[in-house]
């Protein structure tokens, strides 16, 4: 087991410069929830990623910054901003990243959910791997076409979220929701050891 863990951690070589061992974006963090994006960011760094960018609401930014000087925090998820302006900010940031995590501490506020949808669209455009967790999954269960055909999206639900996603997919497959006839490709990794890869 330790050998498998070691295999995913980049060696710290003297010739590497900052960012070459991994640049990960964490999109989440609102007024109510500041711990989850912090833990997601620090977890990335503890397994070898050397740059973590947390994209959050302006209310969450100073709190998350206070947890650690190692984190780069962008208060871009501002409900007073035009959605297209946020999209352009995310496009600029995501060009620097190797992967993104969408959802920790996101909350279910309409504006934050809209930002998550835009983030998934931008991540797909950039051909990034996207781990969708927590309230990012709330978006997916309510709008499954958000990840339709996105083969680099990995959903990581707990048992309750897994049930909600399965019910949402049943509604899609039974035709009770309008989804384009293209392939629906999902990679669900349950936190209780159940893995489901489905392609319809």
Brief digest:
This protein is of the alpha/beta class and 200 residues long. 38% of the residues lie in helices and 17% in strands.
Can you offer a commentary on this structure?
The chain is an alpha/beta fold. The chain has one domain (21-199): Ribokinase (UDP-N-acetylmuramoyl-L-alanine:D-glutamate ligase, 3-Layer(aba) Sandwich). 38% of the residues lie in helices and 17% in strands. Strands 3-2-1-4-5-6 form a 6-stranded parallel β-sheet, with helices on both faces. Strand 7 (185-189) and strand 8 form a beta hairpin. The model is unreliable at 179-184 (pLDDT under 50). Its main location: cytoplasm. Pfam families: Carb_kinase.
Q: In CATH's first tier, which class applies?
A: Alpha Beta
Strand proportion:
15-25%
Briefly note the structural class of the backbone.
Answer: alpha/beta
Low-confidence stretches: 179-184
CA radius of gyration: 17 Å
Strands of the widest sheet, in order across it, are: 3-2-1-4-5-6
Number of DSSP strand runs: 8
Largest sheet: 6 strands, parallel
- Number of DSSP helical runs: 7
Helix share of residues?
25-40%
> What is the string of helix and strand elements?
HEHEHEHEHEHEHEE
Total domains: 1
Mean model confidence by pLDDT? 88
CATH topology title: UDP-N-acetylmuramoyl-L-alanine:D-glutamate ligase
The assembly state of the depicted protein chains is: single chain
Q: In whole angstroms, how far apart are the ends?
A: 34 Å
Organism: Malassezia globosa (strain ATCC MYA-4612 / CBS 7966)
Family: Belongs to the NnrD/CARKD family.
Domain YjeF C-terminal: 1-200
Pfam family, one: Carb_kinase
């Amino acid at each position: 087991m330790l050998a498998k863990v070691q295999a995913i951690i980049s060696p710290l070589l003297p010739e590497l410069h900052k960012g070459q061992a991994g640049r990960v974006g964490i999109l989440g963090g609102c007024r109510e929830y500041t711990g989850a994006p912090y833990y997601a960011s620090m977890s990335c760094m503890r397994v070898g990623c050397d740059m973590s960018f947390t994209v959050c609401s302006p209310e969450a930014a100073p709190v998350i910054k206070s947890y650690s000087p190692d984190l780069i925090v962008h208060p871009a998820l501002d409900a007073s901003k035009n959605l297209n302006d946020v999209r352009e900010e995310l496009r600029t940031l995501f060009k620097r990243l190797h992967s993104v995590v969408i959802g920790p501490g996101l909350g279910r506020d309409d504006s934050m959910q809209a930002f998550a949808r835009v983030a998934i669209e931008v991540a797909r455009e950039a051909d990034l791997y996207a781990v969708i967790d927590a309230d990012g999954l709330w978006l997916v269960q309510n709008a499954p076409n958000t990840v339709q055909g996105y083969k680099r999206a990995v959903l990581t639900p707990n048992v309750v979220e897994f049930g909600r996603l399965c019910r949402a997919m049943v509604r899609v497959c039974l035709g009770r929701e309008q989804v384009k006839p293209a392939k629906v490709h999902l990679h669900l990794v349950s936190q209780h050891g159940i893995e489901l890869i489905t392609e319809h």
